[in-house]
TrEMBL record:
Domain of life: Eukaryota
GO BP field: negative regulation of cytokinin-activated signaling pathway; regulation of phenylpropanoid metabolic process
The organism's taxonomic lineage, starting at the top: Eukaryota, Viridiplantae, Streptophyta, Embryophyta, Tracheophyta
Database matches in Gene3D superfamilies: Kelch-type beta propeller (2.120.10.80)
Short name of one Pfam family: Kelch_1
Alphabetical list of SUPFAM superfamilies matching this protein: Kelch motif
Name of the molecule in the record: F-box domain-containing protein
InterPro entries, A to Z: Kelch-typ_b-propeller, Kelch_1, KMD1-4
């Protein structure tokens, strides 16, 4: 009886450990190690693919906010994981305009490159857009849409989907309609929305589309009331919001703003963006409009990317000049407390220009 009880109390997940302890070990795996963990055994694969896995990570406070960035590949890469992926890109005939997907855990300061795209030069399209999607059973994916071919600079209708469990990219159904550039993109409840931008004749567009990664299918949406070129897409309160762009008769934004930097705080309807060298914020329904949070350090004001992460924290990634190395700053926006920046220079192999970014939790 004793041996039967001991056998039932143990888990196949990790031999010799009770199931609860083994599961506690697995939910502590880093976001960049999930594909390797999934390949260890059938039991581990089932565990990390279970909807309970993500819920347990969140319940234990182990889910990490991660910024996914389309980042320029530095010309000289130090030995390590980044060099491995850079070498793969070069072997595929990568161009000088080489962009890759990079992940950053801004709280722990961990950086990790994703594999290069299969069957291409290895570079992501120039000026592509990226959105993070929670799919069936909470499966985390990144969806890269559109952009320009890095060799010919011709607009593309390409779609690439990265699955964090398999650790691999796949081609998605191409984006229908005219090949658009500089459009708004955001993910809302597992669907990627696209709106505006301009066509190959530089005509601003008002059309909108929705992409379902689970079905790998596109659907047309009603047109916007106005054409919007170079707008910003946001998910606010479960809605797809298109901010900025032109031509615009009336705008939520004031002169001197940078709508490209606009982002939304997770679990709230507070928006942040950069304006005249400052980080500003606006709460939903706030009659006072935008308020200044803090002045952005001078070495991060150029070509900046802004991401709001849980805990009232805001991450700004930018440089002091065009072509300069990227620097990461983070502050906590709390009522009644003075905001201050914490600086974390990017490692040399992750110092390239950030072209697009989105936030996800893993």
């Amino acid at each position: 009886m004793s041996s039967c009880f001991e056998a039932s109390a143990m888990s196949d997940l990790i031999p010799g450990l009770p199931e609860e302890v083994a599961r506690e070990c697995l939910i502590r795996v880093g976001f960049d190690q999930l594909p390797a963990v999934r390949r260890i055994s059938r039991q581990w694969k089932e565990e990390v693919e279970s909807p309970d896995y993500g819920r347990l990570r969140r319940a234990e406070g182990l889910a990490r906010p991660v910024v996914a960035m389309v980042q320029a590949q530095p010309e000289h890469v130090e030995p390590g994981p980044a060099q491995k992926h850079a070498s793969a890109s070069a072997a595929n005939g990568g161009s000088a305009n080489n962009y890759r997907m990079v992940l950053l855990d801004p709280v722990e300061g961990r950086w990790a490159p994703l594999p290069v795209l299969p069957g291409t030069t290895g570079s992501l399209p120039l000026f592509c857009q990226v959105a993070a999607v929670d799919g069936a059973q909470g499966r985390k994916r990144l969806v890269v849409v559109g952009g320009w071919d890095p060799e010919s600079w011709a607009p593309t209708d390409s779609v690439y989907v990265y699955d964090f469990l398999t650790g691999a990219w796949r081609r998605g159904a191409p984006m229908p309609g005219p090949r658009r550039s500089f459009f708004a993109t955001a993910a809302v409840r597992g669907v990627v929305y696209v709106a505006g931008g301009h066509d190959e004749e530089k005509n601003a567009l008002r059309s909108a589309l929705a992409y379902d990664p689970d079905a790998d299918a596109w659907a047309a949406l009603p047109d916007m009331a106005e054409e919007r070129d170079e707008p910003r897409g946001l998910c606010v309160g479960g809605r797809f919001l298109v901010v900025g762009g032109y031509p615009t008769q009336e705008s939520l934004l004031e002169d001197g703003t940078c709508p490209r930097t606009c982002c939304v705080a997770p679990g709230a309807e507070r928006m942040y963006m950069l304006r005249d060298g400052n980080l500003v914020a606006r709460d939903a329904g706030a009659s006072a409009g935008w308020r200044t949070v803090a002045s952005v350090p001078e070495d991060a004001r150029t070509a900046s990317t802004v991401s709001a992460i849980p805990g009232g924290r805001v991450v700004v990634i930018g440089s002091g000049c065009h072509g300069g190395d990227q620097t990461v700053y983070m502050l906590r926006d709390e009522a009644g407390k003075a905001a201050s920046w914490a600086r974390a220079p990017a490692p040399p192999e992750f110092s390239g220009h950030v072209q697009a970014a989105c936030l996800l939790e893993i």
